[in-house]
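S.,

Sequence below, as promised.
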Amino acid sequence: MGEKKIVIAEYPAGEVPCLASVLYEDDRPVEFFIRRKDRQSLLGNIYVGKVETIQNNLNAAFVRLGPDQNGYLPLPPRHSRRDRTLKAGDEIVVQVEKEAMKQKLPRLTQSLAIPGRFLVLTSERKTLNLSRKLKEEDRKRLEDFFRPLFDASFGIIVRTNAAEADEKELLREWEALSGQMKRILDHGAERTCYSCLYQSESDAIYLLKQCPARDLKRLVTDDPETKRELDAYIDRTFSKDDRPEAVLYADRMVDLYKLYNLTTLFEALQSRTVWLKSGGFLVIEQTEAFVSVDVNTGRYSGNKSFSKTVQMTNDEAAPEIARQIRLRQLSGTILVDFINMREPGDQKRLRERMTEEFRKDPSQPQVIDITALDIMEITRTRKRKSFKEQLKEIEADG
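The prediction came back faster than expected:
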């Protein structure tokens, strides 16, 4: 994966004070989040909500999470016993599964999940599951470790990076997460309506979870509150031997966002055009239904033949497309129009290249197919708002 660093910097987006969080791999930005300093994401939060209405025609319930926040709870086509008794006025424990998007309310679920660095605990699927990406020897070792702890009161998903942890780290995270889940399941419904039972991770913690300690070379912020949050998370999560150090940047001569040239990155992400070193370029368009990426040879004027130029441009475009998808937090259906991808050999090679590049992305995009019109069809699970949506939210609040 290469060396990683995380920068969380105060950033003036127009007149709105924001925090920009950036993950770098080998000195190239691969993930970027920006939000107002006075706003936190609801994604992943767990609340005691109140059912306002049941919409039978939509097969959904509208649930109030607080005085100024509603959410949308889909109900299964065949109502379970729990769903049949759901009625207006009921107080229920729900988790924000998807953030508000465009004109849609946040999507809620009653299937709760609490993620850590190595584990995810779930309230519904009460089984012990291990990542398929684990090596066989790691699977056996981790299953032997967790099997005695598992009592089926909730589910356990053992993540791929659990292979890097020792037993003390695994036990520390298990005790912390299982304590949280037990409190929510046993006593959550008794709490006051609109109580937040679980506060999800900030952008900074989300990025930190992606970095094995041995790969993280720098973790720096100029925001004291973020520094305190990082220190608290590191104290309860990392062992003394591998803990990263969060550095508070305090140079008054040069702002942290200027030191890392975040204005250039911020402006580049607002452009639909991404230039490649060869002179080719990508055009990225976000529509209501899907994201399109068009690959062009552009202004290349070398001495290669057209077929070699096409192959060179496509090969250069593949890793950049994967990076831009992750950097801009693009999700859903993504359609990529590579150049002249008519030969089966070209299709196979590019498909394998994209699949390999996507292994670096925690959201694990999937190459689904190549259509009859030679368009590569990709899907990526939505975890966070796209950069475009983040920007609109800042502009609307400003």
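Residues 333 and 379 are 5 Å apart (CA to CA).

Coffee later?
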